[in-house]
Amino acid sequence: MTTELIIYLEPSYEVRQYIESFLEECKERFGPTTANKYGCHITMVGFFDVDNEAQQEDLKNKLDSLLKKFKTTSLPIIEIKPFLVTDKETRESVHLLLPVTSPEPYHQLMRELAKYYPMLRLKRINHISLAYWDEPEATRLEQEHWKKSRKEIFQQIQEYATQYFKQLDSTNMNWDVVLYKRKVKGDHVGEKHVFEEIQRWHTQITKEDGSNH
Fold this sequence. Notes:
This protein has a single domain (3-203), classed as Cyclic Phosphodiesterase, Chain: A (Alpha-Beta Complex), CATH 3.90.1140. The protein starts with a strand and ends in a 10-residue tail after the last strand. Helix content is 34%, strand content 28%. α2 runs antiparallel to α3. The chain has helices at residues 13-30, 53-68, 104-116, 140-164; strands spanning 3-11, 42-50, 77-78, 83-86, 93-101, 127-132, 175-184, 194-203. The chain is an alpha+beta fold. The longest helix has 25 residues, at 140-164. The chain contains four helices and eight strands. The chain is globular, with a radius of gyration of 18 Å. The protein has a four-stranded antiparallel β-sheet. Strands 3, 4, 5 and 6 form a four-stranded antiparallel β-sheet that branches.
């Protein structure tokens, strides 16, 4: 039986809680979007399958080995001004997010891992999702409601997010690379996916002498 894994980059616990509280409040105020299926995260590698526990352990050990050699002179930065992405053709709003700037070593880390596991789908590591819609299992009424109301919903969430994230201190936060297993897939609108943390690695700035802060 195959297992679904995914690799995230996550900010410190306090920041994750702050952003996840925002997502829950938006769900109550404006209704659920696909962002509510997940916790606060930046995807480094999209979902992928392993065939057994041995393959999972092998990948975990390889990532652990790469992270022991990981060096960076800077950490990711969250831009606290929410950004609304529009479709280039339709000009419709499609994704509200917080932009994230991730230093090159984080991208290089995933490229190195992909040399050993070519099936990995590398991501841009550049945003935290606040609202979007990707619900193939939604009912016809749910799809019609979203299509009819999305402009207003995006506008409301963006206005609320602009005020909410003014309080976020995006400096001096810790960042972790996390390997997760998806145990339960939330198919219905607003239904959360259930994840199990396999391992978490704390990343730090590397000093010129090679030591970590």
